[in-house]
Amino acid sequence: MTPHDPRPDPDALLARVNEDERRAARGRLKIFFGASAGVGKTYAMLEAARRKRAEGVDVVVGYVEPHGRDETERLAADLPSLPPLAVHYRNTLRHELDLDAALARRPAVLVVDELAHSNVVDGTPAPRHAKRWQDIDELLAAGIDVWTTVNVQHLESLNDVVAGITGARQQETVPDRVFDEADEVELIDLPADDLLARLAAGKVYVREHAAHAREHFFRKGNLIALRELALRRTADRVDAAMRDYRDARGISSGWAARERLVACIGPTAAAEQVVRAAKRLADALDAEWIVVYVETPALLRLPDAERNRRIDVLRLAESLGAETVTLGGASVADEVLQYARTRNATRIVVGRASRSGWRAWVAPSPIAALLREKTDIDVVVVGSDALSLARRSPLVARTEAMLATGTSGKRRWPAYALAVAITALATGIAWLLSTRFAQANLVMVYLLGCTVVAVRLGRGPSVLASLLGVAAFDFFFVPPQYTFAVADAQYLLTFAIMLAVSLTIANLTAGVRLQARVAGHRERRTALLYAMSRELAQAGDREAMARTAVRHVGESFDGQAVVLLPDDAGRLHLPHGRPEPHSLRGADLGVAQWVLDHDERAGLGSDTLPGQEALYAPLPTPQGPLGVIALLPANPRRVLLPEQRQLFAAFAAQIALALDRVRLAERARGAEVNAAAETVRNALLAGISHDLRTPLAVIAGSASALAEQGDDIPAARRRELAASIYTQAEHVTTLVGNVLELARLEAGNIAPRTEAYPLDDIVGAVLHRLDPVLGGLAVTVALPPDLPPVDVDATLVEQALANLVDNARKHAAGATTLAIAASRRGDHVELTVSDDGAGLPPGDPERLFAKFERGRAEDAVGGAGLGLALVRAIADAHGGSVRAERVSPHGARFVLALLVARGSA
Amino acid sequence: MTRALHAVLVVEDEPQLRALLRTTLEAAGYRVIEAETARRAVVEARTHKPDLALVDLGLPDADGIDVIRAVREFSSLPVIVLSARAQEHEKVAALDAGADDYVTKPFGVGELLARVRGALRRGAQVADADGSVVVIGDWALDLARRTTRNPATGATLHLTPIEFRIVTVLAQHAGRVVTHRQLLRDVWGPEAVERPEYLRNFIKQLRNKLERDPARPRHLVTEIGVGYRLEVAGDDSPA
Fold this sequence. Notes:
The structure holds two protein chains of two kinds.
Chain A: H1 10-25, E1 29-34, H2 41-54, E2 59-63, H3 70-77, E3 85-89, E4 92-96, H4 99-105, E5 109-112, H5 132-141, E6 145-151, H6 159-166, H7 176-181, E7 184-188, H8 192-200, H9 211-217, H10 220-249, E8 260-265, H11 270-285, E9 288-295, H12 297-300, H13 304-307, H14 309-319, E10 323-328, H15 332-342, E11 347-351, H16 357-362, H17 366-372, E12 378-382, H18 394-404, H19 406-433, H20 439-457, H21 459-477, H22 490-538, H23 542-557, E13 559-566, E14 572-573, H24 589-598, E15 602-603, E16 615-618, E17 628-633, H25 636-640, H26 642-709, H27 715-747, E18 755-757, H28 759-774, E19 778-782, E20 790-792, H29 794-811, E21 817-825, E22 828-835, H30 867-877, E23 881-886, E24 892-899
Parallel strand pairs in A: 1-6, 1-7, 2-5, 5-6, 8-9, 8-11, 9-10, 11-12, 19-21
Antiparallel strand pairs in A: 3-4, 13-14, 13-17, 15-16, 16-17, 18-20, 21-22, 22-24, 23-24
Chain B: E1 7-11, H1 15-27, E2 31-35, H2 38-48, E3 52-56, H3 64-72, E4 79-84, H4 88-96, E5 101-105, H5 109-128, E6 133-136, E7 139-142, E8 147-149, H6 161-172, E9 177-179, H7 180-188, H8 196-210, E10 220-223, E11 227-230
Parallel strand pairs in B: 1-2, 1-3, 3-4, 4-5
Antiparallel strand pairs in B: 6-7, 7-8, 9-11, 10-11
């Protein structure tokens, strides 16, 4: 945007409008914000609620902590309130907000104390969400206005700052997003002295067991600092609101390029601090921020307990509003820089180097490497503080690592034994060579052995092989032989270099191995996804896709899975049909339904119902979720790893894509079928109405004449009228019969009940039935005596033949003879009805079998519009065919081919 | 032949059709009793003891077949079923339940009256069936003596015992349809009722022997999906 163009960015405006619309549908959140307990938030909230109630607004108390403060309780008693949900937890009874009751009650404003409260997730009945702010989120989504209270120390991003001030870390925190997105924040401010006075007067509730913390927490210095923090946080909000306002009004004072931060974390305790610092920085700069974790081969070697820490940190970052990314690569610095460049980041936030001394010199920390890079991106280094006491000494960490890898250590001892064996072998070879070759060459044999161990067996065994190699070389080959003593001091240099070289080889090779493993991992992931999407592409329908998905997800995540699809009413159902070995039985439909309705994951490892054993994730499409996939992993830890979660998300997206494809295809096919059916219906209606109108006009006219003027009409004329009524009624009967029969056949729900049946019987029956109407038409029948029976529903074929004969009678002008014949052609019997009349009308004879196609447009003979169409439908239903042919010199022939009955070939 | 007025019970829920049947039957010299429900039909059949019943298969309170079963418990009066087209299985069920014949709606007056006459004649025929001679085309069949001869030329024709039995059963119901099941049971016995293909071969042979043009049978008529009907000369002509 140029400085001369004062118009706001249209995209920003659109986002603004969308945001406003979203907010209009959502309930409004008002937060009564305080610096600490005791400032009177709850009191102020209830006061305001009472005033609102007096104005006639439907204000209901959802939940207020019963702190035993008289004035608060008196206020609350004046307002209608929801009974709390009693939750049993380890033989105690806890009270929680009854979310479902609140949703059902739908008040205009719901008052809920303590936004930062954690629900008793392990209790019975289990509350839906782990945190109260999630309850409130759902209430707001349902369009209910909510008033709540929170203290500054509960804000996630200020958590460690407050901990720095008071020395106590808060367990109950609220994502800043909730606070920032609140529609209104009212700061309840009380000077520190007043608060202390209230405390002295016993007006501030402090939990009994926390009483000893009181002196520590409620110190004047702390209170002043907290108050300043609360004031500043509120001011930040006001500032942001002001900025929003200016955006909305198009007030522009220099459109600064948007800042974007990339925070880089490792699996250290300091990572949390880096994330919080980045959040504060991002807020201050009004910037987007991305938290990046780079998985290097070295980090892959860390024990699980340590690696899992990054999961918590990344989730913390997500809850603070960051985008999180896990990258893989050899060098943290390179990966982060490259990523920051692709995302146009303006700053990189890193923690301070924890390495020092020789380690920092030998293996520089990623931060040092980052700082050495020449780049235009600012690097912000966040200092570590008292909290680093959480960081354990390397020795402790290593011990834990050894304990943690105890299981894998068991599996690895053969590798160490093999390393010893290879070193022994190298010694043997060196022994054989020692008589002819210089000792320098013997060193080479050891180095070769060490390399082999490093390549085949990994880091640990190769280190062992290095040490053993040096020792063996010393013992067997360095004079004095068979002792570890060294006669010549220059060998010490040999040992040192030999050890350094073999350790370097061991390290490098092990690194390469790990890289290969990481690459293999990634390749396997891609292969898994590819295998599934390829099979999904082949699956024809939703059930087959669901089965394919279940099998692949089950195999890939080593667990049981189920894909739940909603019916037309949006209700999920358990799949019926053959279960796969990986099928999850007993998925919780209630949880799944919640996931579908809210388009959010729930269950294991998520924020909602984390107590569930299985993880439930929506199958996302831009139009909303298509279903839910549930996964019960054999090892719950697996789904907690970020890369596994991302892989799972990728699977879900892939499945959703495939299902969406089927859905669109079905819709397209449905539309096609509808259009075709519509065309047929229209033709049918037009045809029926035409073919009905003529005979009905005759019937109605003749009948009304007879009824009204019967006496005045001569008797002979009366009989004529009556006869024409009868004839026309028969036409209508035939037509209606054909329509019904056709509809029955085309609906496809009646299969012909076929049996082996002799054609001569059918021909005889038809000729007998039509005898009265055949008139002067001579009929010849030529059926060979050895004609095999046909596989037919005799009643239907009788109808078809009758229609063919009737057609010839009506439409073969000038015909004198009707010939019925049959002959066998392969596995069919062809029944022909031919006449010597005027022949078929010009054009494609196939047209005759279309519905309401008449031979000649001006044909006055009615009731034939469906006759041949019905013959075609009957032939098709029998797996046979019918065609019309021209006969020379004149006449027409209809050929009905029917299958020879099995067993009569 | 003078006779008392035959009483016909008309069981039909459609008033216009009922009125038409009354008009037609009364014009042909029958006395008409009307019933519009199945319950009423059974009561009327008990109290008025009609000579014949015309029963519509679709009634508001029950199936027409139930009426036939109920009537058959106390009476052997002839029953003709009125049914719509394309309901072959219903026709067969009605016939197997004890109906004597059926008329497909819509029907002409001639056809209806011919069926009524055929059904009423049954009472008389049952009595002297054994001694009767049936004329089929050129041939006169003496069912008691089991001989077949051409009265015009004096030629004779051999029919097998089973062929005779088939003709006998059909002749006992002359002019009316006999279901496959009924025919099979009466000729071969109860175990053969599911084998209609037996019948087709014998009917074909009979046609070859008796009909003038076996390809266009005029006497041994197939009612596709239902059974066979023996039409004796002159039977079909309207009154």
